[in-house]
Specification:
6% strand, two-stranded antiparallel ribbon, single chain, 434 Repressor (Amino-terminal Domain), 90 residues, 2 strands, globular, mainly alpha
Length: 90
């Protein structure tokens, strides 16, 4: 039997911070959301949700590891930079 998932405290804040970092990196490269989504192999809708810090409406961002790595490669940002925890997200 699977153990129920518990969401870490302040995960919604952390997820939103990741979304902001994704958006900043995209803007620095002059890419559209559609460009990033296409290069990563996800839908534009999914990427738009990621920038909002969501996986689905009302659900905090929780991408697959492969998606996270592809995002870091496309946006030319280290995974560690995307996942950095600020004082606000602790």
């Amino acid at each position: 039997m699977a153990r129920p998932r518990t969401v870490p405290e302040n995960w919604d804040v952390r997820a939103r911070e990741i979304g902001v970092r994704l958006q900043q990196a995209r803007h620095e490269l002059g890419l559209s959301q559609e460009d990033v989504a296409y290069r990563v192999g996800i839908s534009a809708y999914t990427y738009q949700k990621f920038e909002k810090g969501e996986s689905r409406p009302g659900t905090p961002l929780n991408p697959r590891l492969t998606t996270l790595i592809m995002l870091s490669e496309v946006l030319k940002v280290e995974v560690e930079t995307l996942l950095r925890v600020s004082a606000q997200g602790q």
